[in-house]
């Protein structure tokens, strides 16, 4: 069976099952528009689907996906800023109440950054994107030399969440709403092996398991 055949079969099950059972709510979303309370920045990794992990319904989450769930700093350069545009829409138009940066273990983008050889290969879109965490990489390699590779990856994944939260605060529209208490920022970290979810503690930047 081709991969797309599996999708078509799934769509048919959706039309006959989920759609029929939730038709009223789905039509309401279609007619009245979306009004999610939460925007979530997560990785493009196919194993990390926030709607499944968090057991959400359609319309609950405004999902922004990219490599390694990174939030770049607010910039005014004449370029294309997909993640920034989505954040702007979520904050200003949808008026979300929370933004969650959801990272995860075994992140391919983080691994490519941490494993990069000193003799750099020709730059790729991914390598340029991951340069956002170059300072994090240098600090980990300098201070965690006795730590095994897996722990280094995990540390970089978590510090990537921390930096993304800091970068969120470079957006004036986010600063303003956080200051008046109408918007909250959260850093979450998902373990693929254990399916455990961890939340960053604001007072320590440490991640504590959500029970």
Task: Describe the protein in words.
It is a single chain. With 211 residues, this protein is α/β, with parallel strands linked by helices. It folds into two domains: 1-33, no CATH class; 34-209, Beta-carbonic Anhydrase, Chain A, CATH 3.40.1050. The protein is 45% helix and 16% strand. The chain contains ten helices and six strands, in the order αααβαβαβαααααβββ. The protein has helices at 3-16, 18-21, 23-32, 50-53, 82-93, 108-114, 125-130, 134-143, 149-168, 172-179; strands at residues 38-43, 61-66, 98-104, 184-190, 197-200, 207-209. The protein has a six-stranded mixed beta sheet with strand order 2-1-3-4-5-6, with helices on one face. Strand 1 (38-43), helix 4 (50-53) and strand 2 (61-66) form a beta-alpha-beta unit. It is globular, with a radius of gyration of 19 Å. 25% of the residues are buried. The mean pLDDT is 94.
Question: Notable features of this structure?
Answer:
45% helix, 211 residues, six-stranded mixed sheet, alpha/beta, globular, Beta-carbonic Anhydrase, Chain A
The percent of residues in helical segments reads 40-55%
Low-confidence segments = none
Q: What is the annotated CATH architecture of the largest domain? A: 3-Layer(aba) Sandwich
Based on Cα principal axes, name the global outline: globular
Radius of gyration: 19 Å
Integer average pLDDT: 94
Give me the count of strands: 6
Per CATH, the superfamily of the largest domain is: Carbonic anhydrase
Counted by DSSP, the helix tally is 10
Distance between the termini: 40 Å
- Range of strand content: 15-25%
CATH topology of the largest domain: Beta-carbonic Anhydrase, Chain A
Q: What is the N-to-C succession of helices and strands? A: HHHEHEHEHHHHHEEE
Q: From the helix content, strand content and strand pairing, which structural class follows?
A: alpha/beta
Level-1 CATH class name of the largest domain? Alpha Beta
Name the strands of the widest sheet in spatial order.
2-1-3-4-5-6
Biggest beta-sheet profile: 6 strands, mixed
Question: How many domains, in number, for the residues?
Answer: 2
């Amino acid at each position: 069976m081709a991969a797309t055949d599996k999708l078509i079969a799934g769509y048919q099950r959706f039309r006959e099952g989920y759609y029929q059972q939730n038709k009223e709510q789905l039509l309401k979303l279609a007619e009245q528009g979306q009004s999610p309370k939460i925007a979530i920045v997560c990785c493009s990794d196919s194993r990390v689907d926030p709607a499944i992990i968090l057991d959400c319904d359609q319309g609950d989450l405004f999902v922004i996906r990219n490599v390694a769930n990174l939030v770049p700093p607010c910039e005014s350069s004449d370029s294309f800023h997909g993640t920034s545009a989505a954040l702007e829409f979520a904050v200003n138009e949808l008026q979300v109440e929370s933004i969650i940066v959801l990272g995860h273990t075994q992140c391919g983008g983080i691994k490519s950054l941490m494993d990069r050889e000193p003799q750099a290969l020709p730059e790729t879109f991914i390598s340029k994107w991951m340069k956002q965490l170059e300072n994090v990489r240098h600090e980990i390699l300098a201070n965690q030399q006795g730590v095994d590779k897996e722990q280094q990856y995990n540390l970089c994944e978590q510090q990537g969440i921390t930096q993304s939260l800091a970068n969120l605060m470079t957006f004036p529209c986010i600063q303003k709403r956080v200051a008046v208490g109408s918007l909250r920022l959260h850093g979450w970290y998902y373990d693929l092996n254990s399916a455990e979810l961890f939340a960053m503690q604001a007072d320590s930047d440490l991640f504590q398991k959500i029970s």
